[in-house]
Amino acid sequence: MTDRIREFLKNRKEEGPCLVLDLDVVRDNYGAFARTLPDTKVYYAVKANPHPEILSLLNKLGSSFDVASVPETLAVLATGCTPDRISYGNTIKKESEIATAFKLGVTLFAVDCEAEVDKVARAAPGARVICRIHCDGTGAEWPLSRKFGCEPEFAADILERAHKAGLTAHGISFHVGSQQHNVEAWDRALASTAAVFRTCAERGIMLSTVNLGGGFPAKYVRKTPKLESYGKAIFRSLRRHFGNRIPETIIEPGRGMVGNAGVIEAEVVLIAKRSPEEDTRWVYLDIGKFHGLAETIGESIRYPIRTRRDRDEAGPCIVAGPTCDSVDVLYEKTPYPLPVSLAIGDKVLIEATGAYTSTYSSVGFNGYPPLKSYVIAPTEPALAA
Amino acid sequence: MTDRIREFLKNRKEEGPCLVLDLDVVRDNYGAFARTLPDTKVYYAVKANPHPEILSLLNKLGSSFDVASVPETLAVLATGCTPDRISYGNTIKKESEIATAFKLGVTLFAVDCEAEVDKVARAAPGARVICRIHCDGTGAEWPLSRKFGCEPEFAADILERAHKAGLTAHGISFHVGSQQHNVEAWDRALASTAAVFRTCAERGIMLSTVNLGGGFPAKYVRKTPKLESYGKAIFRSLRRHFGNRIPETIIEPGRGMVGNAGVIEAEVVLIAKRSPEEDTRWVYLDIGKFHGLAETIGESIRYPIRTRRDRDEAGPCIVAGPTCDSVDVLYEKTPYPLPVSLAIGDKVLIEATGAYTSTYSSVGFNGYPPLKSYVIAPTEPALAA
After folding, report:
1. Percentages (nearest 5) of helix, strand, coil residues in chain A
2. Are residue A287 and residue A142 in the same domain, yes or no?
3. Nearest to A336 by CA among A295, A296, A381, A308
4. Is B46 part of the contact surface with chain A (CB cutoff 8 Å)?
5. Does residue B342 form part of some domain?
6. Is residue A29 domain-resident?
7. Is B219 exposed, middle or buried (0-12, 13-18, 19+ CB in 10 A)?
8. What integer pLDDT is reported at residue A142 of this predicted model?
9. What is the domain-level CATH number for residue A315?
């Protein structure tokens, strides 16, 4: 929460939940990544929040961009960013999408299997490919499934196939899992990566780049390590596994770039006890899983919820959204402590909601409109991070 | 799947997944509900699919409507439907929303706790209220949580509070759980309902109406009982618990009205084996959890997936969506059998997707646009159901 967001909300007249983003926080986050990992290129993961003003600010600051689709590519190019600063990081692409991105000038694509290499070779001849390897995500609040990435032992074959098909085998990427709390999580993946580099070198293919992915946490309820600790741990691992031939590195922060820049203001619609002897109250907000808080699926992310009554005694609550859908419950397995004095009509602030909220919102489930979002322009001079 | 949908898809030129709805199926479904439960008023659950042409057709056919919000109320009124045919069924409402609906002419509201009664009394003086009671949903594919409904023993107090506040205590509603396979599921809830009717009568409050809710299944992979069996079982239960003083009844089919009217066409973007010794393939479609198939959360709903190669040998697949989100996996716990010959670029048909798909779609997660939907107008004469 920032003073500028507080001020904005004080003056807001409209009804309904909204997300407010303070671009000064985004600017500062970019600065922190750039300072902490000075030899690493920052590719902002657009999917975290593709708001045009976020993209525009990051473009001005010199950021590169990780995109998941053609529309995201177009959104980045619309800021004036050149396509050489775009990485198409989605390993699941239609051949027509690859061709469109390539026509737009994008020359860096992620792959994780031979079929995808063949598509890129046909649709984007001569492009660079980065092979994504699977790593187990231990320590992440939201560990990654087997959906993405080949087993490390197949990466060299995939990259060799790319090389033989006239593509540039550019490097390796991995993702240690979103909201990663273990600063050492990159080490095992970097060990595997170094092994792929060696195998490829033996086959005459010189890889140049390691995409370290995202995973840098936003601070929710649980404490997170400092960004500096991540930077140091990653650098130690790079030294350990690559010696003094450290490759080019890329990071793709999304949540870490914009998560703490946003706050959702919502309203308490109803409070009900389901039986007189129960202590736990049901607290229904005017926002739920289907209008921006999808990351509460499985109660993965526990957002800080603030009220004007936080000094009062707290009691356990099941927190739910406003739709007629029984799945639309945010916190139930682990009830959320909220003030006993909380009342219908109270506003609540759901903090650290700048990432993975507004675009998850449904187009209109139960008739409720998509989550509104507002940005507060960066203080001038914008570049004095 | 209908011939008309097949024909439509054959002629479609655009890229990307889409939902196609055949309004003849909706018309026939309405006819079946009206015929099977002739003494029951049908309130279509708008949230299942609020497409204006569906609402318009159902209005012409004489249906009433169950709405979850003010925007859904407006959508129904836009068809020319009069507000006396609208039930505001969401138990979670802002006082301002109740006031707006009341101004629009809506006079029937659901409540499930005293705080909600007080809101309705203030914002919609003199309106009718139906108290929702909780029932356990045994037999439903998607059982309902404790999110909605009071325990039956508190319903009389809640209705008495409404009565004393100048509202009309109209009746009881419940929901036996979505996609209910047990035709007897209504019996226990009707026993509780009859008990509330008796308690209220002893207090001089004569309830008139039972809202039997939804729960009528669409046919997915599993076989479902015939609608006639539901009608007969419900009528038997009404006789059993109410004798010859059978109350007015309402049903709120949503899934049962439009589920089987729609088919999603999608495309296979990628097929990958994650290791050579694994039999299971990962099949990535251009639609997933965030663009319409949210009901695969927890693998609750298993949609029939058809391909052109269904006569070929099948093998187990993990089916996933196209986004860079590891949660975007449709079927993994129970792999889905798909043809071994399935190829990248193949179209697949995801059947019985007319309900709870298009409005769940995100506004643009990962840059992918919301699910497109098309309707095929009903054959004339539309009313000859």
Report:
1. 35, 25, 40
2. no
3. A296
4. yes
5. yes
6. no
7. middle
8. 53
9. 2.40.37.10
Does residue A370 fall inside a structural domain?
yes
CB contact under 8 A, B112 and A370: no
What is the C-alpha to C-alpha distance for residues B265 and B15, in angstroms, rounded to an integer?
10
Asked whether B40 and B62 are in contact (CB, 8 A), the reply is: no
ipTM confidence = 0.94
Residue-averaged pLDDT of chain B: 94
Q: Please, is B143 exposed, middle or buried when counting C-beta atoms within 10 Å of its C-beta (0-12, 13-18, 19+)?
A: middle
Distance CA A91, CA B324 (A): 8
The whole-angstrom distance between residue A208's C-alpha and the CA centroid of its chain comes to 25
pLDDT in tens, A155-188: 999 999 999 999 999 999 999 887 788 888 899 9
The amino acid present at A130, given as its one-letter code, is I
Total-model pTM: 0.94
Q: Give the pLDDT confidence score for residue A384 in this predicted structure.
A: 47
Three-class SS state of B226: coil
Within a domain: residue B27? Answer: no
| The predicted structure's pLDDT at residue A79 | 98
Task: Let me know: does B126 contact B168? Beta carbons within 8 Å.
Answer: yes
Chain A interface mutation, best of B324, B325, B358, highest count of A Cβ atoms under 10 Å: B324
B369: Cα separation from own chain's centroid? 24
Between CA B107 and CA B129 the distance in angstroms is 8
Q: Are residues A160 and A279 in the same domain?
A: no
Burial class (CB in 10 A: 0-12, 13-18, 19+), B257: buried
A381, containing H or E segment: none
What is the rounded average pLDDT of the residues B307-326? Answer: 96
- B324 catalytic? Reply is yes
3-state SS, residue B232: helix
CA distances from A149 to A111, A129, A374, B354 (A): 8, 13, 35, 34
Shortest distance between the Cα of B66 and any Cα of chain A, in A, equals 11
Q: B149: nearest CA in chain A?
A: A274
Does B235 share its domain with B319? Answer: no
Distance CA A352, CA A99 (A): 37
Amino acid at B363: V
Q: What is the dihedral angle through the alpha carbons of A250, A255, A256, A260, rounded to the nearest 10 degrees? A: 160
Q: Give me the amino acid identity at A41.
A: K
- Contact criterion met (CB below 8 Å) for A324 and A366: yes
Residues, chain B: 385
Same domain, yes or no, for B111 and B239?
A: yes
Q: Which domain holds residue A285?
A: 260-376
Q: A238 and A111, same structural domain?
A: yes
Other beta carbons within 10 Å of B234? 24
Q: Based on DSSP, count helices (H) and strands (E) in chain A, helices before strands.
A: 10, 18
Hey, which residues does B64 pair with through a beta bridge?
B43
Q: Which of B229, B253, B277 is the last residue of a domain?
A: B253
B74, B92, B112: which to substitute to probe chain A, counting the most A Cβ within 10 Å?
A: B92
Which of B145, B148, B363 is facing A359, going by the closest CB pair?
Answer: B363
